[in-house]
Amino acid sequence: MYDVGCMIYLLPVKTMTYILYHTPYIFKNVYDNKTFRSVTNTSNGEVSNETLFHYHQQDKVVWAEYAGGGILKGFLIAVVLESGLLDMRYEHVNTQGELMTGRCSSTPENLPDGRIRLYEQWQWTSGDESSGSSIVEEVIL
Question: Is pLDDT above 70 for 121?
Answer without folding.
Answer: yes
